[in-house]
């Protein structure tokens, strides 16, 4: 199984400041035939179901604010919130869909400092 | 507008069975793979099962293999999860989610609201 790890476990950032979350997979999730990273970022706000933010490691879903961006390839990925807003308080999960089981990272909790 | 409405959750005794349903609307159901993901109380997300758009390909997590069966009825636009031999550790909110393509290896695109399953005597 591919093990997904995230760092940090939690972080507190001032409003308007940058938040950076790292995700690492134990195996490569870049599919060479189509050059796509099989990596998704999900956001889960308190008391709500998750929501997809970014697919293929760097493609924002429709309607997702452009302050959210994803980067990385292979085994190392980053989710960046360029200017944290109050509504961004949530737990953020990375997930690989390269091979079954499609494992999630443990989550990173983002709060306001 | 995509809508996914889960139902069938509730309280069940250890060893019992439950069938979850997910009614889909707002898209051509048969052309998208669908998946189940669960979340134990206060815990993170755990992938459970996925099924292709046609229904001919499925994959399960080891933790549910042999006990849970994912299926779909494309004529009814409905996804199912048959859960047998339930254990206390199966207690969780179960989410159905739409995948962004017809094959199992496409990413999740949209989540349902979830249904709570509690396994307890």
How would you explain this protein's 3D organization?
Chain A is mainly β. Chain A has strands at 4-7, 10-13, 19-25, 30-31, 36-37, 39-44, 51-55, 59-60, 68-73, 76-81, 90-96, 108-112. In chain A, the strands form three sheets. Chain A has a six-stranded mixed beta sheet with strand order 2-12-11-6-7-8, with no helix packed on it. The model of chain A has no long low-confidence stretch (mean pLDDT 98). Chain B is mainly β and 121 residues long. Helices cover 0% and strands 50% of the residues of chain B. The relative contact order of chain B is 0.32. The interface between A and B is medium-sized, with 24 and 23 residues.
Give a quick summary of the entry:
The complex is a heterodimer of chains A (113) and B (121). Chain A has no helices and 12 strands.
Number of strands of chain A: 12
Specify the biggest β-sheet of chain A: 6 strands, mixed
The most extensive interface, with participating residues per chain, is: A-B, 24 and 23 residues
| Helicity of chain A, as a percent range | under 10%
End-to-end Cα distance of chain A, whole Å, is 36 Å
- The average pLDDT score of chain A comes to 98
List keywords for this structure.
heterodimer; A: 113 residues; mainly beta; six-stranded mixed sheet; four-stranded antiparallel sheet; 0% helix; B: 121 residues; seven-stranded mixed sheet; 50% strand; globular
Outline the fold blueprint.
The complex is a heterodimer of chains A (113) and B (121).
Chain A: E1 4-7, E2 10-13, E3 19-25, E4 30-31, E5 36-37, E6 39-44, E7 51-55, E8 59-60, E9 68-73, E10 76-81, E11 90-96, E12 108-112
Parallel strand pairs in A: 2-12
Antiparallel strand pairs in A: 1-3, 3-10, 4-5, 6-7, 6-11, 7-8, 9-10, 11-12
Chain B: E1 3-7, E2 10-12, E3 18-25, E4 34-39, E5 45-51, E6 58-60, E7 68-73, E8 78-83, E9 92-99, E10 108-111, E11 115-119
Parallel strand pairs in B: 2-11
Antiparallel strand pairs in B: 1-3, 3-8, 4-5, 4-9, 5-6, 7-8, 9-10, 9-11
């Amino acid at each position: 199984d591919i093990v997904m790890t995230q760092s940090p476990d939690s972080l507190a950032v001032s409003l308007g400041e940058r938040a950076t979350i790292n995700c690492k997979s134990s195996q490569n999730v870049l599919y060479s035939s189509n050059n796509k990273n099989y990596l998704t970022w999900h956001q889960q706000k308190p008391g709500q179901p998750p929501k997809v933010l970014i697919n293929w490691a760097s493609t924002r879903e429709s309607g997702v604010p452009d302050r959210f961006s994803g980067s990385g390839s292979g085994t190392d990925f980053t989710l960046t919130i360029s200017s944290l807003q109050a509504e961004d308080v949530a737990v953020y999960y990375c997930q690989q869909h390269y091979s079954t089981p499609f494992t999630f990272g443990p989550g990173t909790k983002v709060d306001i400092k | 507008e995509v809508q996914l409405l889960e139902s069938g959750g509730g309280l069940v005794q250890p060893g019992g069975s439950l069938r979850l349903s997910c009614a889909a609307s707002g898209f051509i159901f048969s052309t998208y793979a669908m998946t189940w993901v669960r979340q134990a109380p206060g815990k993170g997300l755990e992938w459970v099962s996925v099924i292709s758009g046609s229904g001919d390909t499925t994959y399960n997590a080891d933790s549910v293999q042999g006990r849970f069966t994912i299926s779909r009825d494309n004529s009814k636009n409905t996804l199912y999860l048959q859960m047998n031999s339930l254990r206390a550790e199966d207690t969780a909110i179960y989410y159905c989610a739409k995948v962004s393509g017809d094959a199992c290896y496409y990413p999740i695109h949209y989540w349902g609201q979830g249904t709570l399953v509690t396994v307890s005597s």
